[in-house]
Amino acid sequence: MSDSSYLKLIDLSSAGLLLFAIFLVWFRDLMAMIKTLSIQGLMLVAIALFEGLRSGEKSLYLVAFLFLATRVVAIPLVLRQLLLGSVNERETSPLLNTSGSLVAAALLSLLAFLIAQPLVGFSHFGETILLPFPLATFLVGVLVMITRSKALSQLIGFLCLDNALSGLALIATLGVPLVVELGISLDVLFLVLVLVLVIGKMKEKILHTELSELRELHE
Amino acid sequence: MNSVILYVSVAAPLICALLIATFGWRLLFGWMQVLASLVILVSGIVLAFGISGSATYYLGGLIRLDAVSAWMLIVVGSVSLLASWASVGYLTAEDEHGVLNFSQRRTYGSLFSIFVTAMTCVVIANNLGIIWVAIEATTISTAFLVGIKGDSKAIEAAWKYVIICSFGISLALLGTLLIYFGAVSVNVPSSEALNLSVLAHDASRLPVPITSLAMAAMILGFGAKAGLVPFHTWLPDAHGQAPAPVSALMSGVLLSVAFSVLLRLKSISDAALGMSFFKNGLLILGLLSIIVAALLMMGQRDYKRLLAYSSIENMGLLSLGATGNSKLVVEAVLLQILVHGIGKAVLFISAGQLHQLTSSTLVERVTGISRRSVWLASFIAIGMVTIVGLPPFAMFGTEVTIVHSMISSHLVIPLIVAAIFLLLAFGSFSHIGVTMLFGESPLDGTSWVLSVHFVLPLVLGIGALFGLGFFGEMVIPFLHISASSLVSP
Lengths: 219, 489
What we know:
The complex is a heterodimer of chains A (219) and B (489). Chain A is built from 7 helices and no strands. Chain A is mainly alpha-helical.
């Protein structure tokens, strides 16, 4: 394939990052959110793979494999464990309703394009023109974290934001050095394990995972 | 030779963590943890003696040894020495009362050592990526330590702690990635573009829009882990719920380890963006932190949360100090990091002993300590006098230096605002302190017997505080070398 067709595929996958983030804003069903997160991870794998094919940088294949193992397979698998036994668990009382959140997501995407304006065009490396996509994904991830009230959906928002950061690194600079990438991925994986255990304990001891109801510690 | 000492100071706590994870916590391993902390402390001192001025790099530039890293090793080593010794006391007592079972003690012991290892890595790393990974590792390792009691409050605190810190630290990652992007785009080789020394060397070439966005994200992000507003809210919950030795370690070193990263970044930002960018960031966050902490300290009912807010206030004050660009004020900031670390460790360890004796963290339940135990009352009194910055302890001198620096850089209005709220905090802190020590006792007057594993580290800590108070000028020449590498020419 030619250089320009790889570029188009990278364009498409970066737009996919944002698209699936917006699906996360839309969905209330937690299982659907986990699946969406997994597909968003697949977009990340695609970006790494196509960047690798385009630039001939061998380490990017390893990064693609790392993302496949953690973001697409392992993390969603761990998250699913939390939903075992409970049928059709849904986000019940988000701070913003669906249409409100979608409007907010659109505004945040616009903001990301504005922030990215001065950054675009600095680098001869990568496709900096695509930078608004991961930045918008980052902001949308923050939106999910802030507006959802279930512990699991907050965690999913955090992971979306994390996917955005990995996407940013790939698009802007063909990724950070491999050792750092490995460290980041391991940290994220452990973090998910820790938080899933904490949510599990929450279910066991506090009998719910509504964060707005966590009020024992306050001033 | 120096590289071997550095590796040993990372390996020592790591070996403890592996042993405890494999065999479970035993008294012998508890003492090995104390020894590992001593190894870090001694390494820091030995390395400090051999330092002339310029930094040396190892592992292809990933690790840096200079006066600042040696000083921070001393901070990590001395506070973790007190905290690990108190941990021996804590775990033996919890074992006798049957509060923590075998697997909980294994978790506590191994994660405690991983926490210390991660902090050691942060202070000797030169690569921003490694620093980020190690700081995130401190969050992961302490999550279970915060939630170890397993009741609903501890779980709530653990959740808030991890999610707020991780969000903050992901802002720092955003900043790290952006500065890497900026450096690579001006042809810094990608294998070195995350090295702080390389970034500092090429700072003037870094593109301004990217660097300013990156620095803003990193001030907020690493600031979250340093306990600065607006992501400070994890601190009181986590400090209130974590076992006392862990709180001592978090308050005494974790906050200042994250803060030392900000000090390193400042010189890069000053060269790339001019002197005012980072200074204004620190000024705003520092002032807000002091204000928020002072307001929340008023009428505080929980003494562990009070100590947590006092740490936020201290980090705010350090930020105000770091706005100055003279060697003198940076020396004061570095010295205050150590003195506050030891002072807070003394207070948290005393608080832990108090909690084990009374099973309460409410001020109203523990009043009249002086009638129950003169020793414990003295430890708390000395710790409090240190933390509020009264003589003869060294924080008096460092705080005067910070005030002087603010006046000479014409920050008079921020100084007045800070002074008002610092006085307010001083008032609340001393009022609660006096009530706890000399108030009417709610219980009968039987005197307390203190555990020897709490008393000895407390005596050691207080000895160090007096030592630094009376002979603090002996470390000044060394701090002078440290400050030179942090101050922009």
